[in-house]
Amino acid sequence: MNSHRHSLLLAAVIACLNLASGEPNAAELTEQEKKDGWKLLFDGVSTKGWRAIGKPAFPEKGWSVEDGCLKHTAKGGGGDIIANDPYENYELTLEFKVAPGTNSGVKYRVEDKPGSAFGPEFQIADDATNSDAKNLKHSTGSLYDMIEPKNKTLKPVGEFNSIRLIVQGNHCEHWVNGAKTVEYEFFSEAWKAAYAASKYAKNPKYGTPAKNFFSLQDHGDEVWFRNIKLRELPAKTN
């Protein structure tokens, strides 16, 4: 059997196994998604397009690719990771799964500097057993330490949940499993009040500049991310 026929056969076998398991293919866009401008940021099999924040390469420890996911191992180190490019106006979707007690998140408008990313955070946690998540502003779907989530329904630990993040101009939305949990405007009076009462109040660079990176957080806990997709949006005019 020549190499081309072998590759086709292998691809067919993998496709059949995926169908049999009922698991979605983490490395594909539908034709409609392609037409709508979505791009796949994680191919499900490699770390291509990802790197440690503030560094040119992917972390040598902590993060790995497992079962179509970017996985962080508990206490594995490695730091936060970012996709290669900065964005300003976009819609981001992904699926995540947590282990018992996990604390993690997706941060955005973060600078590409070494160390942990600093910026607004779409919080992800095991709301049931993580002690920090008892503060609703620290629970899944919140704007961490600033706005508590509404209308949230989570699947049990060990199952995948979906999130959607919209950042368009100063307008931001957090969605969990198809329900909007947070909506706000950067630098509005409500935002200023929440900011002043938060742990970020003494850092004037929080949430700036608008065109920046988003990161997947290493908070020292076990978490999986898959189906990471993004489409750029037109600039919002008020």
Could you describe the 3D structure shown?
By secondary structure, the chain is α+β, with helices and mostly antiparallel strands. It has a single domain (28-232), classed as Jelly Rolls (Sandwich). It contains 3 helices and 13 strands. It has helices at 3-21, 31-35, 189-196; strands at residues 39-40, 50-52, 63-66, 69-72, 81-83, 90-98, 103-110, 121-125, 161-168, 171-176, 179-185, 213-216, 223-232. The strands form 2 sheets. Strands 1, 3, 4, 6, 9, 10, 11 and 13 form an 8-stranded antiparallel beta sheet that branches. A 5-stranded antiparallel beta sheet has the order 2-5-12-7-8, with no helix packed on it. Strand 10 and strand 11 form a beta hairpin. The chain is globular and about 45 Å long.
Distance N to C terminus? 62 Å
| CA gyration radius, whole angstroms | 18 Å
Major sheet: 8 strands, antiparallel
Quaternary arrangement of the chains shown? single chain
CATH architecture designation: Sandwich
Q: So, the CATH homologous superfamily?
A: Exo-inulinase, domain 1
**How many extended strands?**
13
Strand content: 25-35%
Instruction: Write down the secondary-structure element order.
Output: HHEEEEEEEEEEEHEE
The CATH topology corresponds to: Jelly Rolls
Mean pLDDT: 91
Helix content: 10-25%
- Secondary structure category: alpha+beta
Principal-axes geometry comes out as globular
